[in-house]
């Protein structure tokens, strides 16, 4: 499921990036293309007024030669003009280019056939042309034929667009290459950040799977005890309750264990709900901790524990219920894991904005290899599993969730067969 989600996320993100790149590059290309077309159109449709006098052209039966002039107009690009008669034959050529008469005649024929305009190839260059009616008046030397303003003439204008087209092709190629490069780059970036973003989700998914497996296992044990002992009861229906009391005690213990586990799970579900707002009230932290210790006086006495308290007066704004649950977890752990006739020390101190609370107790301690995992859900060392049947491995995990919500952190240090110390660093809003 996680792999499918990751692949889908990478595909969607990469597709979105690709769409943005395509749109951006198409806009860039179209902008450049329209700019080039607009410039070409302006140059082709540039209005000119040209007066020619004193020129000479011969019109005989064998050959007609067009009158030719050579001009260079700044900003007009590479172009040439031709004035043609009503049959499309060149009358005048306005060109500073070294083209043959054959090329000029070919250009005139092509343009005359397609007077709507277009692009043609002359030599090794591409030319865009337009054909438009013209008003021409050419005065020639006496004896030569004359063209007046009333004669039907047309102006053909040819603009060299070879370099402009080449620039557009190069731009398109550059955009494609750059686009593919950026797409590969963004694809790798998406993979990298997706993997980083998915890592907490994978860990949460694995934690959830492990949580379900552990919870199922923990519930399976008391259910198995209840089921087995019920089977014994059903097989001995004639016996009295007193005779069956051993099996009933086993069922009761299994029920108590399952009830305790369910309550722990409900507490964990509440502390895991980070979206539920905290109820901040003014709390005497030392008094709350002192009351929690008082509640365990009888239990401490049953194990003949020596309890030492070093509390200082601290009033803060915090969630009283969560703080009380936090204290109960550590006091209960201290009672449970302190050895007979052992000692428990609870102390408070202030360090800047922090309130530091220490729970130090004697006992079996925690092996060094188990210290990094003591806050994992359902984690218990082998010694704890064998010695304490009422331990679920949830208390410290719940405590860590609580302390993350009210602000702070927990640290632990332990020496096997000597002592264990939990230190709470609480970031409380002190009054």
Name the features:
single chain; 431 residues; alpha+beta; Beta-Lactamase; Heat Shock Protein 90; five-stranded mixed beta sheet; 9 helices; 49% helix
Number of helices: 9
Gross CATH architecture of the largest domain: 2-Layer Sandwich
- Largest beta-sheet details: 6 strands, mixed
| Structure class | alpha+beta
The mean pLDDT is 80
| Helix percentage range | 40-55%
Query: Numbering strands along the chain, what is their spatial order in the largest sheet?
Result: 2-4-3-8-6-5
Cα(first) to Cα(last) distance is 49 Å
- The CATH class label of the largest domain is Alpha Beta
The count of DSSP E runs of length 2 or more, i.e. the number of strands, is 16
CATH topology of the largest domain: Heat Shock Protein 90
Number of domains: 3
Report the oligomer. single chain
Rg from Cα? 48 Å
Q: What string, H for helix and E for strand, traces the elements in order?
A: HEEEEHEEEEHHEHHEEHEEHHEEE
> In CATH, what is the homologous superfamily of the largest domain?
Histidine kinase-like ATPase, C-terminal domain
| Overall form | elongated
């Amino acid at each position: 499921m996680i792999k499918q989600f990751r692949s889908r996320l990478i595909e969607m993100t990469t597709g979105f990036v690709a769409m943005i790149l395509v749109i951006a590059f198409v806009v860039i290309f179209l902008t450049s293309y329209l700019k080039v077309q607009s410039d070409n159109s302006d140059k082709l449709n540039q209005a000119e007024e040209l007066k020619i006098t004193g020129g000479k052209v011969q019109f005989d039966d064998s050959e007609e030669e067009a009158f030719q002039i050579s001009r260079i107009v700044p900003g007009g690009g590479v172009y040439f003009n031709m004035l043609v008669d009503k049959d499309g034959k060149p009358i005048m050529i306005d060109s500073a280019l070294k083209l043959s008469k054959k090329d000029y005649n070919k250009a005139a024929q092509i343009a005359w056939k397609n007077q709507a305009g277009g692009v043609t190839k002359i030599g090794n260059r591409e030319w865009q042309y337009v054909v438009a009616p013209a008003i021409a008046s050419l005065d020639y030397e006496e004896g030569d034929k004359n063209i007046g303003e009333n004669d039907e003439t047309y102006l053909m204008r040819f603009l060299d667009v070879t370099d402009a087209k080449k620039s557009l092709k190069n731009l398109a190629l550059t955009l494609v290459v750059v686009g593919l490069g950026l797409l590969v780059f963004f694809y790798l970036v998406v993979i990298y950040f997706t993997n980083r973003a998915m890592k907490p989700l994978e860990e949460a998914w694995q934690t959830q799977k492990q949580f379900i497996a552990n919870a199922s296992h923990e519930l399976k044990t008391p259910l198995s005890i209840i089921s087995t002992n019920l089977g014994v009861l059903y097989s001995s229906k004639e016996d009295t309750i007193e005779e069956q009391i051993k099996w009933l005690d086993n069922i009761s213990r299994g029920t108590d264990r399952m009830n305790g586990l369910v309550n722990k799970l409900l507490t964990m579900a509440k502390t895991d709900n980070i979206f539920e707002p905290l109820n901040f009230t003014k709390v005497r932290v030392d008094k709350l901790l002192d009351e929690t210790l008082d509640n365990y006086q009888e239990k401490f006495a049953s194990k003949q524990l020596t309890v030492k308290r070093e509390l200082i007066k601290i009033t803060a704004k915090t969630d009283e219920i969560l703080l009380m649950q936090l204290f109960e977890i550590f006091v209960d752990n201290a009672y449970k894991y302190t050895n007979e006739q052992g000692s428990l020390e609870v102390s408070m101190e202030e360090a800047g904005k922090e309130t530091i609370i220490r729970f130090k107790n004697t006992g079996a301690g925690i092996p060094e290899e188990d210290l990094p995992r003591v806050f994992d859900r359902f984690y218990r060392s082998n010694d704890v599993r064998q010695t304490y049947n009422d331990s679920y491995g949830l208390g410290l995990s719940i405590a860590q969730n609580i302390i993350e919500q009210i602000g702070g952190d927990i640290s632990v240090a332990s020496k096997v067969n000597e002592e264990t110390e939990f230190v709470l660093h609480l970031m409380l809003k002190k009054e």
